[in-house]
Amino acid sequence: MEQTFGKLIRQARKDKGYSQRQLAALLKVDFTYLSKLENDRADYAPKEDVIRGLARNLGIDEEELIFLAGRIPQHYENFLKQNNKEITALFRRLQENPSFAKKIFDAAQETE
Description:
The protein has helices at 5-16, 20-27, 31-38, 48-58, 62-68, 77-82, 84-96, 98-110.
């Protein structure tokens, strides 16, 4: 089953023993908004500061959660803008060539 942003934060919240109301209070958001996020029913991805707060409180890697939410961390924006043509070509090639994508992802894992 595909891991979604909502499923991940719901499971992590339960694993940490928080209720939706408790976690929402820590994040300073309404619990109904948190419920929408957990059910993948929010109209838009949450702001980066909310995602980072979720990650910190739930023990999830912040950048991975930002990407899973469909956002790009702000500190990458200038790099992406400066290299927009190359990034576009890279994403296209990754999508069109799964073996190339695997090589890139494997190499990225080796550096961590």
